[in-house]
Amino acid sequence: MRLKILPPTLRQKKRYIALKLYSESEITKDECIQILWNSIINIFGEIESGKINLWLIDFEEAENIKRFEYNCIVRCTRGYEKMALTAFYTIANYRKNPIAIHGLSTSGTIKNLKEKF
Protein backbone atom coordinates (compact mmCIF):
# COMPACT_ATOMS: atom_id res chain seq x y z
CA MET A 1 0.00 0.00 0.00
CA ARG A 2 1.46 3.35 -1.06
CA LEU A 3 1.14 6.55 0.88
CA LYS A 4 -0.86 9.24 -0.85
CA ILE A 5 0.62 12.65 -1.54
CA LEU A 6 -1.03 15.57 0.23
CA PRO A 7 -3.14 17.72 -2.08
CA PRO A 8 -1.89 21.31 -2.57
CA THR A 9 -4.68 22.73 -0.41
CA LEU A 10 -3.42 20.82 2.65
CA ARG A 11 0.29 21.53 2.18
CA GLN A 12 2.09 24.13 4.23
CA LYS A 13 2.65 27.39 2.33
CA LYS A 14 6.30 28.42 1.91
CA ARG A 15 8.18 31.62 1.19
CA TYR A 16 11.72 32.01 -0.04
CA ILE A 17 14.06 34.77 1.16
CA ALA A 18 17.21 35.88 -0.67
CA LEU A 19 20.05 36.94 1.64
CA LYS A 20 23.52 38.39 1.21
CA LEU A 21 25.94 37.36 3.93
CA TYR A 22 29.18 39.33 4.38
CA SER A 23 32.00 38.02 6.54
CA GLU A 24 35.63 38.72 7.36
CA SER A 25 36.45 34.99 7.34
CA GLU A 26 35.29 32.04 5.27
CA ILE A 27 32.03 30.36 6.29
CA THR A 28 30.81 26.89 5.30
CA LYS A 29 27.23 25.90 4.55
CA ASP A 30 26.92 24.07 7.89
CA GLU A 31 28.15 27.12 9.78
CA CYS A 32 25.63 29.29 7.93
CA ILE A 33 22.81 26.98 8.99
CA GLN A 34 24.03 27.12 12.57
CA ILE A 35 24.26 30.93 12.52
CA LEU A 36 20.73 31.37 11.14
CA TRP A 37 19.10 28.82 13.46
CA ASN A 38 20.87 30.13 16.56
CA SER A 39 19.70 33.67 15.85
CA ILE A 40 16.07 32.55 15.51
CA ILE A 41 16.20 30.36 18.62
CA ASN A 42 17.86 33.10 20.71
CA ILE A 43 15.22 35.68 19.80
CA PHE A 44 11.97 33.71 19.55
CA GLY A 45 12.62 30.46 21.42
CA GLU A 46 12.27 26.89 20.26
CA ILE A 47 8.49 26.81 19.81
CA GLU A 48 8.32 29.84 17.51
CA SER A 49 11.46 28.77 15.64
CA GLY A 50 9.77 25.45 14.93
CA LYS A 51 6.82 27.31 13.43
CA ILE A 52 9.16 29.34 11.21
CA ASN A 53 10.45 26.03 9.76
CA LEU A 54 13.71 27.48 8.44
CA TRP A 55 15.59 25.63 5.70
CA LEU A 56 18.69 26.69 3.76
CA ILE A 57 18.03 25.98 0.08
CA ASP A 58 21.02 27.53 -1.70
CA PHE A 59 24.41 28.71 -0.47
CA GLU A 60 27.07 29.95 -2.88
CA GLU A 61 30.05 32.24 -2.64
CA ALA A 62 30.05 35.45 -4.66
CA GLU A 63 33.17 37.16 -5.91
CA ASN A 64 34.38 40.00 -3.71
CA ILE A 65 37.99 41.15 -3.33
CA LYS A 66 37.68 42.87 0.06
CA ARG A 67 35.74 40.24 2.04
CA PHE A 68 33.85 36.95 1.80
CA GLU A 69 30.37 37.35 0.32
CA TYR A 70 27.71 34.65 0.05
CA ASN A 71 24.34 34.45 -1.68
CA CYS A 72 21.80 32.43 0.29
CA ILE A 73 18.24 31.35 -0.33
CA VAL A 74 16.26 30.41 2.77
CA ARG A 75 12.82 28.79 2.93
CA CYS A 76 10.36 29.54 5.73
CA THR A 77 6.65 29.28 6.44
CA ARG A 78 4.37 31.92 4.94
CA GLY A 79 3.55 34.62 7.46
CA TYR A 80 6.83 34.24 9.35
CA GLU A 81 9.12 36.00 6.84
CA LYS A 82 9.37 39.18 8.91
CA MET A 83 10.19 37.23 12.06
CA ALA A 84 12.96 35.37 10.25
CA LEU A 85 14.41 38.57 8.79
CA THR A 86 14.27 40.25 12.20
CA ALA A 87 16.32 37.42 13.67
CA PHE A 88 18.81 37.55 10.78
CA TYR A 89 19.35 41.29 11.18
CA THR A 90 20.42 40.81 14.82
CA ILE A 91 23.43 38.72 13.81
CA ALA A 92 26.58 40.76 14.42
CA ASN A 93 29.41 38.26 14.71
CA TYR A 94 30.31 34.59 14.59
CA ARG A 95 33.37 33.26 16.42
CA LYS A 96 34.68 36.81 16.96
CA ASN A 97 34.42 37.63 13.25
CA PRO A 98 32.03 40.39 12.17
CA ILE A 99 29.11 39.30 9.99
CA ALA A 100 26.43 41.32 8.22
CA ILE A 101 23.28 39.93 6.64
CA HIS A 102 21.11 41.83 4.18
CA GLY A 103 17.71 40.61 3.06
CA LEU A 104 17.34 41.17 -0.68
CA SER A 105 13.89 39.93 -1.53
CA THR A 106 11.07 37.56 -0.64
CA SER A 107 9.14 35.43 -3.10
CA GLY A 108 6.77 32.49 -3.35
CA THR A 109 8.97 30.56 -5.78
CA ILE A 110 12.70 30.05 -6.17
CA LYS A 111 12.51 30.81 -9.88
CA ASN A 112 11.06 34.29 -9.34
CA LEU A 113 13.57 34.94 -6.56
CA LYS A 114 16.54 34.09 -8.80
CA GLU A 115 15.16 36.38 -11.52
CA LYS A 116 15.11 39.32 -9.10
CA PHE A 117 18.82 39.21 -8.28
What's this model, at a glance?
The chain is of the alpha+beta class.
What does this structure look like?
With 117 residues, the chain is an alpha+beta fold. It has a single domain (14-105), classed as Alpha-Beta Plaits. The protein has helices spanning 29-52, 81-89, 110-116; strands at residues 14-23, 55-62, 68-77, 93-94, 97-107. Strand 4 and strand 5 (97-107) form a beta hairpin. The longest helix is centred in the middle third of the chain and has 24 residues, at 29-52. The chain starts with 13 loop residues before the first strand and ends with a helix. The relative contact order is 0.27. The mean pLDDT is 91.
User: What's the gyration radius in Å?
Assistant: 15 Å
Largest sheet: 5 strands, antiparallel
Helical/strand content category? alpha+beta
CATH superfamily: Ribonuclease P, Pop5 subunit
What CATH calls the topology is Alpha-Beta Plaits
Total discrete domains: 1
Which outline best applies?
globular
Under the CATH scheme, the architecture is 2-Layer Sandwich
> How far is it from the N-terminal to the C-terminal residue, by CA?
44 Å
Mean pLDDT: 91
Give the helices and strands as they follow along the chain.
EHEEHEEH
Observed structural traits:
117 residues, alpha+beta, 3 helices
Give the secondary structure arrangement, pairings included.
Blueprint: E1 14-23, H1 29-52, E2 55-62, E3 68-77, H2 81-89, E4 93-94, E5 97-107, H3 110-116
Antiparallel strand pairs: 1-3, 1-5, 2-3, 4-5
Helix pairs in contact: 1-2
